[in-house]
Amino acid sequence: MSSSSPLRSFLLFVSVLATQLRPTHAIGVRFTTPAPGAAYPSGQFAINWEDAGGNIGINSLTTYSLALIVGGNLDDDSRSLITLSPANAKVSDLGLVAQIPIDVGQSIQNGYYLSMQSNVSTGGSVINYSNRFTLIGLNGTTDQKYVAAAASTVGDTNVPGAQLNTIINAPSPSNPPTSPNSTTPDNGPPANNGTAPSTNEDNTYAIAGGALAALLAGTLTSIILLIVLTVLGVFWWRRRRRQQRARDAGSDENAATSMSARELTPGGLMDKVELADRTSRVPTAAAAIRPLAELDSHGSERFEAMTPVAAVEADSAEIRYELEGDWSGWEAAARRSHVQGYDPTR
């Protein structure tokens, strides 16, 4: 198995882990209608939802309250217009048919969305938002602030950050939702016989929860990236180290082979014509010098040259050579004729 196999396995594990991470808004319900960017007239308005697949699903939710919202995504540029759900409506019903009054407001492209506040059986509540849609054929009026906020919101899926569905405090049971047919003029406070979902305090908690969830997601992504970079760095360092060791081993082997060939072959004594420094220089010990020189059949001594070819070597009686070291006891004096050789064995 190659060294890259563990790295491939690790990267595959990281990719699978990333695909399995659920977004923080996968809690409560997910609206299937109204469809994002769709246009609906006033009158009967079908609304449907399904389980979002999170830890707190429909089986954990009891009753809900559903409101129609107009405007942007912030507390000060959006408004809850009417409550669309009847009293004690159950989340498990998975939908309802509401009534949209013709004078609820004016037609604004993608200016409307729904807000559902569901009670959790173990306490608290969850807020879910639908995608944006358009109501057509209306004859009401809408404050210009909300019209401008809706127009500046790009995209039919761009809803408040509370879509992250942070669990907030449950509404008081003494304040039931209002009637589905109650309406509120846009130029006055909304008719509120109970506690219709609002985009004020609830959104404040939800946005704070969304920021925390985004921070946690960013931290997790950074940790995964750091682990991947660390593993890649370790594999790269180990590979470079193995390559360097291989180069060093090859250099040592070549150097040893070259040195061995030079020292063991005739004429290769350190590539010099002198006696090597490791040879004894005792004048009377001819045998100590002899391993670095060749003897001809007459017993005269020849010194090694830089080539293994013996033909280029000169007899000791015809030429003299400079020896290693500073001691000149074995060398011929400068006054001697150049045709005389110096015999270090005498």
From TrEMBL:
Residues 165-200, 244-269 are annotated as: Disordered. The chain crosses the membrane at residues 205-237. One of its GO terms (biological process) is (1->6)-beta-D-glucan biosynthetic process. It comes from Dissoconium aciculare CBS 342.82. Residues 1-26 form the signal peptide. Coiled coil: none annotated. Pfam families: Kre9_KNH. GO terms for cellular component: extracellular region. This is Yeast cell wall synthesis Kre9/Knh1-like N-terminal domain-containing protein. Residues 180-190 have a biased composition (Low complexity). The keyword Transmembrane helix applies.
